[in-house]
Amino acid sequence: MPVLVGACVLAAVAWIYLLAAHGGFWRTDCRLPVGGGRAEPGPGDWPSVVAVIPARDEAAILPETLPSLLSQDYPGELSVVLVDDGSSDGTSGAAEALGSMPGAALKVIRGEPLAAGWAGKVWAMAQGVAAAGECDYLLFTDADIAFGPGTVGALVRAAVTDDRALVSQMALLRADTGWEKWIVPAFVYFFAQLYPFRRIGRPGARTAAAAGGCMLVRRAVLASAGGLDQIKDARIDDIALARLLKRPPVAARCWLGFTTGVRSRRPYPRLAELWGMVARSAYTQLRYSPPLLVAVLAGLVWLYLLPPVAGLAGLAALAAGAGTGPAAWCAAAGLTGWFLQAVTYVPVLRLYRLSLFRALGLPLAALLYAGMTADSARRYHAGRGGAWKGRTIPL
Q1: What is the pLDDT of residues 63-108, one digit of tens each?
Q2: Is the pTM of this model over 0.85?
Q3: I want to staple 322 with a disulfide (CB 3.0 to 4.6 A). Which of 109, 182, 317, 349 is the partner?
Q4: Residues of the domain holding 75
Q5: Contact of 30 with 201, CB cutoff 8 Å
């Protein structure tokens, strides 16, 4: 019992630290920076932007997303390059049909077969960069991402006025079905806990991350960092790109924040699809390390599951007349930890317009993520890690 009490108390202390000193990871008010000292571009001075979209079997979703990018009212020159990455569903034809709309500036290219040593998405991104020609900024995005009116202009304004080489926004993922409501907000929450957004934007901070659905990159800075060739084998392209730009000698200023103006339209109606989304790259995030896997799984149990279990068990023991000793400490420390983790989850639930009572279910979401992470390791050691739309990335 003393060991259990100590673990509960330490978990509560850990939650106090996470709430108060872990980069404000739980807050969702980190929005586009504007006015960092530089003037906004004047008429005729807005930088040129080319959006690069890798697309593999995305014909069904493009009508919901591509027009939102092609119809952006951007003050400067904006064009789109879509790279058909070996699709078998008519993705190129669907994109070309959408590109015929008045005023659209779209180039569709058929991607080359995957080159040795490259990860599929980064290979498609590199081909898009090559086809983009000369431009000031590259906007890397995904085929399932829809952009609200004025989004590209706001991104460029933030990059220019705040002198950022990388400006990224976490797209608002779809959370309509029952399983999406359980897993999607937790995905965003855990990502922010791993990479506190405010630390990413802090000059000199080592924390580096981006969200692959929306990454505006200054092309000259990317070139000076060696280009996408430097991360050609990256399975998690957004994290790899941010680390490339932030590390010396480039040490570029980067930023990542939340938004409701950039949204993913990709549905995940079933648990199996959400499970696959997470399991595809979770073990990669742990650098394929068994010791780190064990540590993460133990940490999830300790931080998220122990507090409610110990808190409720302590209350039950007190109700059964166990006195006010260890049972009281378990109840107090466990319920405190459970309450604090729920508090940190509330802002993400508000962002997704979900009931705040779901915050009490965060331990269950953590249990699901522990299972997905363990399954990701199982897939890797079985030689099936990184499977995506019929393509298994060589390990």
Answers
A1: 999 999 999 999 999 999 999 999 999 999 999 999 887 777 999 9
A2: yes
A3: 317
A4: 49-163+204-252
A5: yes
